[in-house]
Design goal:
Distance between the termini: 38 Å
Number of strands: 11
Low-confidence stretches: 1-23, 126-130, 137-147, 156-182, 339-343
Mean pLDDT: 75
Radius of gyration: 20 Å
Strand order of the largest sheet: 3-2-1-4
Strand content: 5-15%
Length: 343
C-alpha cells in the first residue's frame, strides 16, 4: 500500500483562499520520496513551483533527507526543521504479501508512522486545512465476484484493516466520515506503474522478464481484472485535490482515481510484447484462479471515480501501451531500441 498526507498552516490557507491562489512559495515535505509514487509526487509539486523537500530512509540519497518515520522523535525533528506548509506522506508498505507475513512491521510504517506524522504536522502546522491519504486497492475482499465498481462509500475495502482499525480514531486515514470531520481526504488508487529504478518496484513492470523469456512457456494470470494506473497521473490528481482543498473546505472525504483500461496480467504482458515488437506466443493465459497463496486479491478492482470527475479534479489517464513502453525501454536488451524504433 501507498499513503499521502497533506496539511496546511492557517496563515497560508488564508492566502490560498484567493480566487486564483498562487502555488509558488509553498513549502512541501514529501516522505517516501525515493519510492515509485513518492518520486512522481515530488516532481509534480516541484513542477508546480513548490519548494519541495523529499525524505527517505534506506534509499536516502544526496537530494533526500534521511528519516526513520517509525522514530517519533525523528519525525518531530524533521517537521520542526523543515517547517512545511504541506506534508505529503508517501511512505508505506504496499505489498499485500509482505503485509500478510509481517503485520507488525507493516503496521509500524502504514499505521503508527502515519499517525505520528499526522499528529506532528497538526501540532507544528496548527489546524489542518487539507489532509490527503492515498492507498492502493489490491486488498479489496476477494469474496466479491460481481463487476460493479467499488464506491467511495464502501467501507470494507482492505482485509488487512483489522490492525489499521486500531489507529482510526487517532490517524483518521481509513474512514470517509472521520476524514471529513478532521478536514481530510482519502484517495484510493489501483495497481501503479511508472518510471521505475528496478522492475520489481511495480507489479506491472515486474512482468517484463516474463515477456523477454521467448521460447520458454510462461503462464500468466488471466482471471483477476486490474486497472494499471500511472504514477504521474496520480501525482497530478493529488495536486488537483490539494489545490482545490486549499480554496474549498468541502473537498474532503473519499476519492477514487484509476486508469480506464481493464487488463489481466496476461493482457498487460501481451501489450508490452506488442509495444516492443517482441514475440508473445510463449505467454500462456491462466484462466483458472490459482489456489490461495499469500494475501487474497480481488477478481475485479474497478473503482467508481465519479466524485472526482464531477468536481473536475481528475486527469485523463495516459494510454497503457505507450506509457509502459516509456517505462520499460531502459530495460530493453537492445539499448539502441528507442532510437531505432522511434526515429
Amino acid at each position: 500500500m501507498s499513503h499521502l498526507t497533506i496539511d496546511f498552516r492557517p496563515g497560508h490557507v488564508k492566502l490560498l483562499q484567493q480566487e486564483d491562489p498562487p502555488a509558488g512559495g509553498l513549502r512541501v515535505l514529501v516522505t517516501g520520496a525515493s519510492g515509485l509514487l513518492g518520486r512522481a509526487v515530488l516532481r509534480e509539486f516541484e513542477k508546480r513551483g513548490c519548494a519541495a523537500t523529499g525524505t527517505a530512509y534506506r534509499r536516502a540519497g544526496p537530494r533526500l533527507l534521511r528519516c526513520d518515520l517509525i522514530d517519533e522523535d525523528a519525525v518531530k525533528a524533521l517537521v520542526s526543521r523543515c517547517e512545511p506548509d504541506a506534508v505529503i506522506h508517501c511512505a508505506a508498505e504496499r505489498r499485500p504479501d509482505v503485509v500478510e507475513r509481517h503485520p507488525e512491521a507493516a503496521d509500524d510504517i502504514n499505521v503508527r508512522a502515519t499517525g505520528a506524522l499526522a499528529r506532528e504536522a497538526a501540532t507544528t502546522c496548527s489546524t489542518a486545512a487539507a489532509r490527503l491519504t492515498a492507498k492502493t486497492t489490491s486488498r479489496i475482499p476477494s469474496t466479491r465476484t460481481d463487476a460493479a465498481s467499488w464506491k467511495e462509500s464502501d467501507k470494507r475495502f482492505d482485509t488487512a484493516h483489522v490492525s489499521a482499525a486500531r489507529a482510526r480514531r487517532s490517524s483518521c486515514i481509513d474512514n470517509a466520515r472521520d476524514c471529513r470531520r478532521s478536514g481530510s481526504a482519502v484517495l484510493r488508487v489501483p495497481v501503479l506503474f511508472g518510471e521505475v529504478e528496478s522492475l520489481s518496484e511495480s507489479a506491472v513492470t515486474s512482468l517484463w522478464p516474463e515477456v523477454l523469456r521467448a521460447g520458454e512457456s510462461r503462464a500468466l494470470d488471466h482471471c483477476q481484472q486490474r486497472f494499471p494506473t500511472h504514477t504521474r497521473d496520480v501525482a497530478a490528481v493529488c495536486w488537483n485535490i490539494c489545490h482545490a482543498a486549499a480554496r474549498d473546505r468541502s473537498i474532503r472525504g473519499m476519492f477514487h482515481y484509476s486508469g480506464k483500461e481493464q487488463m489481466t496480467k496476461y493482457e498487460m504482458a501481451l501489450a508490452m510484447a506488442q509495444a516492443f515488437n517482441l514475440p508473445s506466443d510463449h505467454l500462456v493465459p491462466l484462466t483458472e484462479r490459482p489456489a490461495a497463496a499469500g494475501a487474497p486479491r480481488p477478481l475485479d478492482s474497478r473503482l467508481d471515480c465519479s466524485r472526482l470527475e464531477v468536481l473536475g479534479l481528475g486527469v485523463e489517464p495516459r494510454a497503457f501501451a505507450p506509457a509502459v513502453r516509456d517505462c520499460l525501454w531502459p530495460f530493453a536488451p537492445d539499448k539502441r531500441w528507442r532510437q531505432t524504433v522511434f526515429h
